[in-house]
Design goal:
This protein is of the alpha+beta class. It contains 9 helices and 5 strands. Strands 1-2-3-5-4 form a 5-stranded mixed beta barrel.
C-alpha cells in the first residue's frame, strides 16, 4: 500500500493534483482543504495517501494530514458514502468540525457538503456518533488529548494491520502512537504490531 508521497507539485485541478516523484506522476484526488495547503506548482509537497480499488476504478486519494485520512476511511465505511462524497464532506468541514457534528448528531452541518442530502447526513452522524470521540483530529481525541495517526512506513502498516483485525481507525492510530513512544521511531512493523495490540486490548 502507498502510505505517503513526497515530490514536486506538477499540476492541480478542481479535486486533484499530480505529484511528480522521481519522474513518475501520481494523480491524487484531494479535498479542497488539502489542495489549499499544497502551495504552488513546482513546490515540494507531501501527502498521506489511501488507495481505493473497485470493479471499475482505481484511484489514489491524498490528504494533508493523517487525521483527514482516518476520517476518510471512517466516512467511506458508511453505506452510500463513496470517495467523492467523503472528499466533499472533508472539503466542507475540518476534522474537528466533523467530530463535533457527529458527536452532537448535527446532520445539518454535514449536509452543508456538496452532494450530501439530509437523509445521508443523518445516516452519517447516527452511524459515527459513537466513533467520533475516538478519532484523531485537530482537537479533542481520546481522553481529551489530540492523537495524530502515525503515517508512513512501518507505523502506517501497523495501523492498517490493526484495522484489518477489527480495531477502529482512531483506536488503531492511538495504539500505534503509544507503541512508537515505547519502542522508538526505529521500531519495525512486527514490534509495533505486537506492542500496539497490547495497548489496544488494554
Amino acid at each position: 500500500m502507498i502510505a505517503k508521497l513526497t515530490g514536486r507539485l506538477d499540476e492541480t485541478g478542481e479535486d486533484w493534483a499530480v505529484i511528480d516523484v522521481n519522474g513518475v506522476g501520481y494523480l491524487v484526488f484531494c479535498s479542497a482543504r488539502t489542495l489549499s495547503t499544497l502551495g504552488s506548482v513546482g513546490d515540494t509537497v507531501r501527502v498521506f495517501t489511501q488507495m481505493q480499488v473497485s470493479e471499475n476504478d482505481m484511484r489514489l486519494l491524498g490528504f494533508a494530514a493523517g487525521e483527514e485520512r482516518d476520517w476518510f476511511r471512517l466516512l467511506t465505511g458508511v453505506q452510500g458514502v463513496g470517495s467523492k462524497v467523503a472528499l466533499a464532506i472533508l472539503s466542507a468541514l475540518s476534522t474537528g468540525e466533523l467530530r463535533e457534528a457527529c458527536s452532537r448528531v448535527d446532520a445539518a452541518s454535514v449536509a452543508r457538503a456538496n452532494g450530501v442530502g439530509p437523509k445521508l447526513a443523518g445516516r452519517i452522524v447516527n452511524e459515527l456518533k459513537d466513533k467520533a470521540g475516538a478519532m484523531p483530529g485537530l482537537s479533542g481525541g481520546v481522553g481529551g488529548v489530540a492523537v495524530a495517526a502515525p503515517v508512513g512506513g512501518a507505523s502506517a502498516d501497523a495501523v492498517s494491520a490493526l484495522e484489518n483485525l477489527g480495531f477502529k481507525p482512531g483506536v488503531a492510530a492511538q495504539a500505534v502512537a503509544r507503541a512508537l513512544d515505547e519502542l522508538g521511531e526505529d521500531a519495525d512493523e512486527g514490534e509495533l504490531i505486537r506492542v500496539a495490540l497490547k495497548k489496544a486490548a488494554g
